[in-house]
Task: inverse folding
């Protein structure tokens, strides 16, 4: 299968870069961090990467041999698939999911899918997944919290899924990119087959630095680090700035939490007052999945009209495998959130 398919990003990036500067109800992370305010570390060239990993491990509260620096969470997912799945293995992938994760798995392995459904509370269908597990299953991939719904699963469900995967000899790979927007503990260390992938991009706005990581049991992280050598190690400049970012980590996280909390009540009030739409209120993340009225079955067409006629950009749910919805975020809306919501309500009127 070709690796150039990316329906979501190919739709989104040109519209996000538009010179018209639409009202930003699309960005699921905080605004870009001004790197000018970060002092990069200075030390011997070859010690930069381990120093960043040691600092990162300390911030995460884990051992340094349980963390591997990766080029963002997307690079971390690819590294995990390369390290933990052999040719001919099967990978089980949830739906909905961030498209690049799916494309990576499709390119490398045979995949099976299971769906978390809104009408079932976005729960993990454990019985369905049990029927998918075989001795060829090597990795199960989920996001926690889910993207685009912004919802968390019951912790016991995920631990049950980890146990199920372990019986088949599989790794449970959990994307926790948005976890730190809420006071939810990581799944790191909860089972010997759980590997977490995450990054600072969404939380701190360090998109260009590609400060991602894998964390998990030391033997699994050793495998990932060895596999990373075949991809090229992380860059020293990124690690140098990463060490500087860690020096401001709590300040930056506090900023992210303020931004994520600032709009949720406004959006909830808007949802309740706007006929025909609903949502599951998120528990900290600055985005959520909003269902459109039945008269707007094509969410892509609706998002296009919303952008072209009203100057508001949201993400069609189709690109996250949830048609009939849009993903709406308030992390970069600033003082234009209410204006943007009002324009969406106007676009929804028959």
Result:
């Amino acid at each position: 299968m070709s690796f150039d398919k990316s329906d979501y990003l190919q739709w989104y990036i040109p519209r996000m870069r538009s010179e018209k500067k639409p009202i930003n109800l699309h960005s699921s992370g905080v605004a870009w961090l001004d790197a000018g305010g970060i002092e990069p570390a200075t030390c011997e060239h070859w010690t930069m990467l381990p120093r960043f990993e040691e600092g990162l491990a300390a911030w995460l509260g884990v051992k340094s041999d349980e963390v591997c620096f990766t080029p963002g969470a997307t690079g971390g997912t690819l590294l995990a698939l390369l390290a933990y799945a052999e040719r001919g293995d099967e990978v089980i992938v949830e739906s909905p999911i961030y498209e690049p994760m799916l494309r990576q798995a499709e390119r490398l392995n045979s995949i099976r899918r299971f769906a978390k459904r809104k009408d079932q509370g976005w729960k993990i269908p454990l019985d369905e997944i049990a029927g998918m597990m075989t001795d060829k299953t090597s990795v199960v991939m989920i996001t926690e919290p889910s993207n685009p719904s912004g919802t968390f699963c019951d912790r016991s469900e995920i631990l049950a899924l980890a146990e199920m995967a372990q019986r088949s000899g599989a790794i449970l790979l959990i994307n926790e990119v948005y976890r730190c927007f809420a006071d939810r503990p990581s799944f790191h260390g909860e089972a010997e087959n759980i590997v977490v992938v995450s990054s600072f991009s969404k939380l701190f706005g360090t998109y260009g630095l590609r400060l991602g990581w894998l964390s998990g049991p030391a033997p699994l992280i050793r495998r990932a680090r060895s596999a990373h050598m075949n991809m090229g190690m992380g860059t020293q400049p990124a690690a140098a700035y990463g060490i500087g970012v860690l020096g401001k980590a709590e300040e930056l996280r506090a900023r992210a939490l303020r931004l994520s909390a600032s709009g949720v009540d406004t959006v909830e009030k808007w949802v309740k007052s706007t006929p025909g739409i609903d949502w599951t209120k998120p528990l900290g993340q600055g985005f959520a999945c909003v269902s459109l009225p039945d008269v707007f079955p094509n969410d892509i067409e609706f998002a296009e009209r919303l952008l072209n006629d009203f100057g508001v950009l949201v993400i069609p749910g189709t690109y996250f495998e949830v048609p009939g919805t849009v993903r709406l975020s308030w992390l970069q809306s600033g003082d234009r959130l209410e204006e943007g919501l009002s324009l969406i309500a106007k676009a929804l009127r028959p």
